[in-house]
């Protein structure tokens, strides 16, 4: 208890402002043309087909993007964990995406995946001798919901991968080298070491990645706004309703839905990972 009490002031400070934001959102969500309280904004949102599409798009974005963030970070962390020539260079390459703002990377992807004359179309049409020809005509990357959201997710995962990598790498570095050496001495291959030693010991770090990345996926705005503007997520729909639609009440309702789903996701992840951790602990005890 004595180790965490210094965090209480910061926790109280953040909780206070989070509560203020929630109160303001509730107030706005119950207001329509200066009428308070009213459920009209919530009713209008529930009947809004664009909200349903944005909700489904965001669910898919989170359900696919969060595991991708975890696997990308795990893969990169494992690559830079072992000692070999050029390890520092590889680690630097993996950290580079975090040095650029998300807006810069999103704009770069916008240019690379341009429908006409973009690098991606030229590459897949075989105009570069290192890559075989796959398509015969230009692909409208931003003209398809699946392609536009996939490119957005690609940019998001690549941009945030260094954070996941560093968190998991800190977990890997906390493993006693003697454990790995003993497993090697007993003839355990990499797959066995990964399954029986590495993954169980870095499970807390992986849980942290899942929690942080799921929040980031739910509230993502930059990449889908620039690369998939016609296929909104909840985050971009809030901006559209508040800015272009001039309807703060409906925007606040969507924001509350987004907050609620984010909190629900965190609770589910904590519950599931807690059960997995208990299974891992029990299996380790029984194996002894």
What would your notes on this structure say?
The protein has 288 residues and is mainly α. It has a single domain (21-287), classed as MetI-like fold (Orthogonal Bundle). It is built from 13 helices and no strands. The protein has helices at 8-29, 40-46, 49-81, 87-95, 102-112, 119-124, 145-173, 177-185, 190-201, 203-218, 222-227, 234-244, 248-287. α3 packs parallel to α7 (145-173), α10 (203-218) packs antiparallel against α13 and α12 (234-244) packs antiparallel against α13 (248-287).
Roughly what percent helix?
Answer: over 70%
Taken from the alpha-carbon principal axes, the silhouette is: flat
- Main sheet makeup: none
Mean pLDDT: 87
User: Could you give me the name of the CATH homologous superfamily?
Assistant: MetI-like
Calculate the terminal CA-CA distance, rounded to whole Å.
Answer: 31 Å
Low-confidence stretches: none
Q: Count every helix, treating DSSP H or I runs of 4 or more residues as helices.
A: 13
Task: Give a short overview.
The chain has 288 residues and is mainly alpha-helical.
Quick tags:
288 residues, mainly alpha
Topology:
Layout: H1 8-29, H2 40-46, H3 49-81, H4 87-95, H5 102-112, H6 119-124, H7 145-173, H8 177-185, H9 190-201, H10 203-218, H11 222-227, H12 234-244, H13 248-287
Helix pairs in contact: 1-13, 2-13, 3-4, 3-7, 3-10, 5-7, 7-10, 10-13, 12-13
